[in-house]
Specification:
By secondary structure, the chain is α+β, with helices and mostly antiparallel strands. The protein is built from eight helices and nine strands. Strand 4 and strand 5 form a beta hairpin. The structure holds flavin mononucleotide (FMN). Flavin mononucleotide (FMN) binds next to strand 8.
């Protein structure tokens, strides 16, 4: 085996997998990561009532490009609500029990992501770091320190679009939610799932006359630390910026 990447692909083949926690009869991890229940929740406009997303799929696909320069026009709460819904919105859950169905597919419907948001320019929201509570379709603020945008930009290797965008999405993987069923092969599925989420963001952004740009270039340790993640049980797997043209 030449390197660790090849080893990963080899030893996550089904023939090498151990007995997953699910097969061992262990209880499944919660469908949502814990959060501070004391924090006030910020309601988002209901996705049912939003007049967006009427663009023809073929037009969205043809128009889609990565956008790195944005206008100063703020995004609205309605638009943010729509983008959160399109990327991680919960369509069906039996009072928090799995399987949960969302607007994106997920291996085994494990849905192992949490969404963190850097808000720079959204009407009605103070700039800062937020987390999306997908089951309630609400936000909580985690950090309103004005230095957070600069810190996160630095974590993304100084890519200035992180500070210039209206909002940046950071998708954190909660590994145990996936590996409970798929053991180490679950790490493959985390990466596959993340692609679906970001593609939905790209296409949904087109329907708002916004643009998005995926971000895979970041310092993992620094970014996890800036977002308060331990980097093992929960770590950033993908991110993207979005804003008005
Ligand atoms: C996994 C992945 C990671 C990416 N990371 C970055 C990034 O860190 N910075 C950036 O400017 N663009 C990034 N991009 C955007 C690509 O550069 C872009 O998709 C590519 O150049 C094709 O251009 P298009 O999206 O306009 O078709 C990334 C795209 C993907 C799919």
């Amino acid at each position: 085996m030449k390197d660790i990447a090849q080893e990963f692909m080899e030893f996550t083949k089904y023939k090498y997998l151990g007995e997953s926690e699910q097969l061992q009869g262990l209880p499944q991890p919660p469908a949502e990561a814990e959060y501070d229940l004391e924090k006030p929740k910020i309601g988002l406009p209901s996705p049912d009532s939003l007049p967006f997303g009427k663009i023809a799929l073929i037009d969205a696909l043809n128009k889609r490009r990565s956008l790195r320069n944005f206008s100063d026009i703020a995004m609205t709460m309605e638009e943010l609500s729509f983008l959160l819904w399109c990327t991680q919105g919960v369509k069906k859950s039996k009072s928090g029990l799995q399987p949960v169905l969302r607007t994106v597919p997920s291996a085994g419907a494990r849905h192992a992501f949490e969404t963190y948001m850097l808000i720079n320019n959204v009407e009605g929201l103070r700039p800062g770091l937020y987390r999306y509570l997908a089951f309630e379709h609400k936000l909580i603020m985690l950090d309103e320190d004005t230095g957070i945008a600069g810190r996160i930009t630095a974590c993304c290797l100084g890519q200035g679009m992180v500070g210039r965008c209206a909002a940046a999405f950071f998708w954190a993987a909660v590994a145990e939610r996936m590996t409970w069923r798929y053991d180490t092969r679950g790490y493959r599925y985390l990466h596959l799932d993340a692609g679906h989420v970001c593609q939905n963001l790209y296409l949904a952004a087109e329907s708002l006359d916004c643009g998005a740009c995926a971000i895979g270039a970041y310092d993992d340790d620094e970014l996890n630390s800036a977002l308060g993640l331990d980097g093992e049980r929960q770590f950033i797997i993908y991110s993207a910026v979005v804003g008005k043209r």
